[in-house]
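[INFO] parsing input record for Large ribosomal subunit protein bL9
[DEBUG] input buffer:
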Amino acid sequence: MKLILTAEVDHLGAAGDTVEVKDGYGRNYLLPRGLAIVATRGAQKQADDIRRARETKQVRDLDHAKELKEALEALGPVTLPVKTSGDSGKLFGSVTAADVVAAIKKAGGPNLDRRIVRLPKAHIKAVGNHPVSVHLHPEVDVAVTLDVAAAN
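[DEBUG] output buffer:
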């Protein structure tokens, strides 16, 4: 079944892309949820309009992502005080992406979505410097150093 996507679908494509999918996936998932339309000549014109709008939005998003990257790089290392258990350097609980976003905002950085923060592991569980990646745009990633320090 040949469809034109009206929204971004993971592992399939972006809005405006023409894709070939199995009939059941198209009829039972994509079409009822409004994620795609059947590929016809009229729909192809609509897809071209969607594609042009997406390209304009990507340029605007790329410029915004570059501005955010400069702001994050200007921050330098971000300190996050957390409670530790004794002198071992282990934390009570762990540091999550939401904690990293709160620390960046508290340090004077931009407000970010926790889903774009990539931790080296699922959670940080020790005191020290940890590299954290922030995925701002498909073409823009920025590395932030997170200094997890013991709170007094």
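[INFO] Helices lie at 23-30, 41-75, 97-106.
[INFO] shutting down worker
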